[in-house]
Amino acid sequence: MNDMTPVTTLKDWETDQEVRWCPGCGDYAILKAVQRTLPMLGADPKNTVFVSGIGCSSRFPYYVESYGFHTIHGRAPAVATGIKLANPALDVWLVTGDGDGMSIGGNHTMHVLRRNLDCQILLFNNEIYGLTKGQYSPTSRVGTPSPTSPVGSVDRPASPCAFALGSGARFVARGYDVSKDLPEVLQAAYRHRGAAFVEIFQNCIVYNKDRFDDFTAKAVAADNQIQLRHGEPLLFAKETKGLALDLETLSLKVVDVADGDWQAAGVAVHNVRNRGLAHMLVEMPFGAFPMALGVIYDDPAPTFESAVVEERARLTAGKTADLARLLGKGQTWVVEDRHAQ
Amino acid sequence: MGPGKVGAEAVVVRFAGDSGDGMQLTGGQFTLSTALAGNDLATFPDFPAEIRAPQGTLFGVSAFQINFGSSEITTAGDAPDVLVAMNPAALKTNIHALKPGGLVIIDTGEFTRRNLEKAKYEADPVEDGSLARWDVLAFDISALTMEAVKPFGLGNKEALRCKNMWTLGLALWMFDRDRQPLVDWLNAKFAQHPVLAQANVAALNAGHAYGETAELAGPLRKQHIDPVPSEPGLYRTITGAEAVSLGLVAGAQLAELPMFFGGYPITPASAILHHLVKMKEFGVTTFQAEDEIAAICAAIGASYAGHLGVTSSSGPGLALKGEAMGLAIMTELPLVIVNSQRGGPSTGLPTKTEQSDLYQAVYGRNGDAPLPVIAARSPADAFECAIEACRIATQFMTPVILLTDGYIGNASEPWKVPDPATFTPFPAHFLEGPNGPDNTVLPYTRDDRGVRPWIRPGTEGLMHRIGGIEKALGTGNIDYSPAAHQAQTDARKARIDGVARAIPAQDVCLGTEGGTLAVVGWGSTFGPIHQAVRRARRRGLDVSHVHVRHIWPLPENLGDLLARFDKVLVPEMNTGQFKTVLRDRFLIDAVPLSKISGQPFAIAELEEAIGRFFDGIPDNEGGVVSVNDTQLPAPEIEQP
């Protein structure tokens, strides 16, 4: 994290590179949101590294005026781990997609989360493989038609946020490309020390157009999404509905709120440190429930790189780096110089 | 050179027993006492992949061979002079290697009907005369051990565990060794359990005392091997895995860089990670990754951030790292990749040695993806090779593969401890300010050697983007135009080819710079080739030994050097991979000599192959010279 607070503007974070996403792609909005957020955070371009894998999302680093590393498919978390361990002072952002982060790189996503490396992981979820021309992805809903599933996909999708919680993530949040709340979510992710996992629903204009309309379209947004804020009641649909704990099933239920009296309706209050609540919020089936957006879980724990630094301090306490002594360690013997005697 | 013959220059001893019998430990301690006695030595640990195979089975036999003597030793020896067989299975799988007239020491306490059945013996070989070709010393070591440790009140199982120390005591007596270092070692090892320490010391002493008495009656005789006259200085024993670890630490120090080591457990490479975790005061960060791919990717990330990134693995793990190596090549970042080769393909022979990853190292990536490859010839040589790998990686901004193998990794030999003050430093440089017009940064401008600048994130004014996608010269911006790809591919190749100008010229390590036959080796075949060529030269044959460290690029003079020989023989523990490289690079008629049994070459095998070039060129000229595998037979084992 930066100690200094250099004054940057959105322009300072733009590169001279021609952006190569399809016109209308949700990635443009996410890029702008990130570039707008970075100055608010007091981030310093020279101490900022964007690391990505492969896919449409992973072209992201080329468009941010900072250090950037466009690596190989699925492996950005591993590269980021090396960068952060080598220089913990750097701000590391990881940009990945549903194919990159949940499929080929699922293993690394799991491990970067459970180790709790201090970084921000932005997983752009468009529920499709865009760059390879539209095959169904590990987050595609059952029945998604695509070149590799002409009559609709049959495999069940993974839930990135549930995966993240299951992997031991200490920060899980959700947003979507054109959401005005996205910068707020990104700021919270940045402020969290440790691995901060942010799923960002992103519209693929070419292969999976308007896939998230049922909760992002203006007409239905209020009814079908719930914006989570720590310490505030879980209300949606213009505060006419809320989420309450169903003590019989030990899960959430939707309740009606009359006259704004959410307490009478038993509506729960959001607590970002409540892991059980976080699990319930990401498990809510959409349709019967609204889509939970915002910071779902935020409960910091010691970070991986700090543990590595501390371990090294413990192991090296009182030792000096004497190469000659190291080489001559163990059971040794001396051959005398016979001529010298 | 049987035991007891006065004036023997070198002796080969093999300890063989069940995987649970502590044979590797016994061998290791015997090695240490041999080194302390001033003998030159070479060892060959040979153990099964299973940690604790079912007791008494043929596939559960673990063996440790040591060759030691009063003159230079470069191999673990062909056939043992002495075999210690702790059970029937160990006898069955190893007796055929023993020299005729050699001594076999047998623990009859383990020769029960059940153990004989497990070893598939129909009759007790100690009794049926089938061991007549050898001197047999068969007695109940188990009972003698139990007797020796009786005062300490150990349970049956614990008491029998002291058998290996009893055997070691006997071996120490046979070769006139000091027991004290072993006693010290046992006391330190069992500091928390003084009773175990006392029991083991008692067993050691009892074995030693048995030698004194048995000498009068049996084939057992004491012999003394004089210390080898060696250069004055401080010595220690070192395994290849230790040497690689120390070399990497030294290399990072010489480059003035912190080191980042990413590894994933795999046999036989894990030992390097085990050693490096204990060297963190040298600026070493170790990372046990979730898989081989993460291990190399994290190392690449660390190199990008300004550390010397290192990763290590063995054959199958190297295959997994292939794509990431391409990334390091494409982004032109320094990286050292150590491959402890083992028998392949797939899982292959995890604990056995082979040299069959040469193609993988030189060619095994997608695209035109050249990188330098270095091969260590012996455990001690691995130290220098690791430094050389660090030097080339940081000076040329490239990944470098260092090849060792299971044999080099596990085997130990005496090593004259070098003085770090004599090493030549090669400090790494980082770009500190803009290198392009108008204060711009050009990460892909190259110097006259084709090397791009190393730029650390965190440096003011040098923000830039790199990646695995094809790029423009200079700026590194995405560019997959035909011209950019041609230019960048040419640049990547030229830089690696240019490494040849920064490595030593190839020498002839034994013999002359031209003549009838050159035996060209690489890697751990050094010892047997060297001895075979030495013996052939003593017989008057015009043969020379050339041993290549720099596999890619090859030394610039190698082609001319080999052209001065009528014939070139290339012995390898693979089906002829380096032979193919030599044929391709120099259009020479290199003849392969292949051995792929998981066992090192025997000197006799190589001598025989060399001889054929002088008794009349073989009919299959240019073809494969087959190997007679009788010297160190791979045990015939029925896998479960």
TrEMBL record, chain A:
Keywords: Oxidoreductase
Matching SUPFAM superfamilies: Thiamin diphosphate-binding fold (THDP-binding)
Pfam families cross-referenced by the UniProt entry: TPP_enzyme_C
Keyword Oxidoreductase attributed: yes
Domain Thiamine pyrophosphate enzyme TPP-binding: start-end pairs: 54-200
PANTHER family in alphabetical order: 2-OXOGLUTARATE OXIDOREDUCTASE SUBUNIT KORB (PTHR48084:SF4), 2-OXOGLUTARATE OXIDOREDUCTASE SUBUNIT KORB-RELATED (PTHR48084)
Name of the protein in question: 2-oxoacid:ferredoxin oxidoreductase subunit beta
Organism in which the protein naturally occurs: Novosphingobium clariflavum
TrEMBL record, chain B:
Presence of the UniProt keyword Zinc-finger in the record: no
SUPFAM superfamilies: Pyruvate-ferredoxin oxidoreductase, PFOR, domain III, Thiamin diphosphate-binding fold (THDP-binding), TK C-terminal domain-like
Domain Pyruvate:ferredoxin oxidoreductase core residue range list: 518-576
UniProt keyword Oxidoreductase present: yes
Gene3D superfamilies according to UniProt: 3.40.50.920, 3.40.50.970, Pyruvate-ferredoxin oxidoreductase, PFOR, domain III
Keywords for this protein: Oxidoreductase
Limits of the Pyruvate flavodoxin/ferredoxin oxidoreductase pyrimidine binding domain: 258-421
Residue span(s) of domain Pyruvate/ketoisovalerate oxidoreductase catalytic: 20-208
Short name of one Pfam family: PFOR_II
PANTHER family in alphabetical order: 2-OXOGLUTARATE OXIDOREDUCTASE SUBUNIT KORA, PYRUVATE-FLAVODOXIN OXIDOREDUCTASE-RELATED
The name this protein goes by in its record: 2-oxoacid:acceptor oxidoreductase subunit alpha
Source species: Novosphingobium clariflavum
